[in-house]
Amino acid sequence: MTGQPRAGDARTTPEAAFAATGLSRRYRRRWALRDCDFAIPAGAVCGLVGPNGSGKSTLLTLGAGLQQPTAGEVRVHGLRPGLDAVLRERIAFVAQDKPLYPRLTVAETLRLGRELNPRWDQDLALEVVQQGGLSLTGRVGELSGGQRSRVALALALGKRPDVLLLDEPMSDLDPLSRHQLMGTLMGQAAEHGTTVVISTHILSELDGVIDHLLLVDDGQVRLAGPVEEILGAHLLLDGPESLPLEPHTVLELRRTGRGVSALVRPDGPVAEGWRAEPPDLEQLLLAYLRSPGAASLNTTVPSSPMEVAA
Amino acid sequence: MIEYRIDRRSGVATYQQIVQQTKQALRLGLLQPGDKLPTAREVVEATAINPNTVLKAYRELEREGLVEPRPGLGTFVQRSLGNADATGDAALRAELSTWVDRAFATGLDREDVTALVSAVLDAREQRTSAPADRAGGGREGTR
Questions:
Q1: Contact by Cβ (8 Å): A76, A42
Q2: Is the pLDDT of residue A181 over 80?
Q3: Is the CB of residue B124 less than 8 Å away from at least one CB of chain A?
């Protein structure tokens, strides 16, 4: 694999909703993100995954304009978050710790949202809050973690943003709320073409939900692109040990009794005798997370290295 | 209106589940010509799946001439589906039935037969989809 540029790729044109070039961010001596390139098209539902401390939250706060890159740049609809003021109403960000005013009631919090946001959708915000059975007169400070998440999501959705950046929004929600809110999110994406970038540890939560994937690990992009394209570039091979794996790129190899099970990026036809099937999203992500040395794959930018030596 | 039930563990692609459930409803007469399918928004709000999946399923149904999108109004059922026992299918069924008898006669049990049928279906699918897989897999190397 030569990693030649894919010139003229539509996804690298300015209409990318969320894009980075050489994006880096350093905290004192530690690089939280280093030289990240990606482009997420408008209307995508993108899963942002990676181990703890891999740079997911840094990536999202940079996208929200709450901090600025140390090097490189991040663009949202071609504009610079935090610097280009017109972006403010087009981006909504839900931080992991869901900062809200604890002394305000739920109703007052929504009123604040209404007064600060010109495109405010009160019906939607109310629906999200009431679906969870929250009292409008209850104080935010007295809500449970999951209920606060709901209020934070109501604020973000009510804002009617073009780009919704969510940092582990569902982690403290019960399964029903999770399902409801994911449904509401997808409904907004369907109705308004909202771009959604959602970070999570719960891989199974993403299956069937996301259409784009961004895997960051140790501050670098390891997988980026449309889910179908990424899954389609991999095969799970099962067969006897004697079968050849060349010339494929082997990402993970496991012995299963007499046979082997390998996750590969095929390069040419697969040898006769292998049982080959495409991996599902969770299998693929787990394999990459288990194999930090596996070559990265980024189909969203023209000139990124397709192969990083293991 | 039809409600889709998505099983994320089934191994069947989500859009295929929507296609299959729609066809099943057509066969059973639960959906009839003129009926409206739920909008993408309605489906995703209820099932929490990606909107593109619903659109892909509806495009597939449209391609097969089963539904028709009417701009601004929604997607409507165009024609119904006969049930599976009609005409040509009866001959296939009879052949399969003979084959199953033979399989049992050689000592296979129900699970063996099912495993054999899925293995043959898998092998066939691999044969027909292999060129596409390779094109997708080798893309970054061939461009």
A1: no
A2: yes
A3: no
Tens of pLDDT, residue by residue over B87-125, are: 556 778 888 889 999 999 999 999 999 888 888 988 888
Asked if the ipTM is above 0.95, the reply is: no
* Amino acid (one-letter) located at A282: E
The nearest alpha carbon in chain A to B137 belongs to A233
A250 and B CB contact within 8 Å:
no
Name every residue whose Cβ is closer than 8 Å to that of residue A248 and which is 6 or more positions away in sequence: A235, A264, A265, A266, A267, A268, A270
Domain extent listing, chain A: 11-227, 233-295
Contact A235 B133 (CB under 8 A): yes
Inform me whether the C-beta atom of residue A11 falls under 8 Å from chain B C-beta atoms.
Answer: no
**Contact (Cβ atoms closer than 8 angstroms) between residue A282 and residue A207:** yes
What burial letters (b/e) apply to A142-153, b meaning 16+ CB within 10 Å?
ebeeebbbbbbb
Contact A1 B14 (CB under 8 A): no
The pLDDT score that the predictor gives to residue A2 is 37
B68 beta partners: B76
- For the stretch A227-262, pLDDT in tens is 999 999 999 999 988 888 888 899 999 888 888 999
List the domains of chain B with CATH numbers: 14-77 (1.10.10.10), 87-142 (no CATH)
Q: Judge whether A287 and A266 are in contact, CB under 8 Å.
A: no
- Using a CB-CB distance cutoff of 8 angstroms, which residues of chain B are in contact with residue A230? none
Return contacts of A102-106, CB within 8 angstroms, 24+ apart.
A102/A139, A102/A140, A102/A141, A103/A139, A103/A140, A103/A141, A104/A139, A104/A140, A105/A136, A105/A137, A105/A138, A105/A139, A105/A140, A106/A134, A106/A135, A106/A136, A106/A137, A106/A138, A106/A140, A106/A143, A106/A151
DSSP-assigned beta bridge partners for residue B74: B70
Residue of B nearest to A301 (CA): B140
Q: How far is A184 from chain B (nearest CA, A)?
A: 5
Indicate the residue of B8, B126, B137 with minimum beta-carbon distance to A232: B137
Tell me which fold the domain A11-227 belongs to. Rossmann fold (3.40.50)
pLDDT tens column, A43-73: 999 999 999 999 999 999 999 999 999 999 9
Instruction: Please judge whether B137 and A184 are an interchain contact, meaning their C-beta atoms are less than 8 angstroms apart.
Output: no
